[in-house]
Amino acid sequence: MPFDPAKPAPGDDLDAVLVRNQLNALKALIDAQAATAATQAGQIASLQSQLNAAIAGTSSNSNAVATLGLTIVNNPPLQGDVQPIADKVDELINSLRR
Hints:
- This protein is mostly helical.
- It has helices at 16-55, 79-96.
- It folds into two domains: 1-56, no CATH class; 60-98.
């Protein structure tokens, strides 16, 4: 018997069979939700594992780009001071492309 929230109706005499069936139907709904949640948790764990495997080692894409090691002494900076920064950003962007 599926759960019927309209039973027992207000003013009805309580019937043990009806109440027991309602409680059993509610328990079945709760158990089904718990099973669904457990399945979804397993699926999420599997997806997390796949994602971790997919991105493992990808940070090494930029290992070939050396650090800039630049000190700017002019105030305001001149084009010759900032051009190496723009060049290094371009180099980094190119190394991160897949």
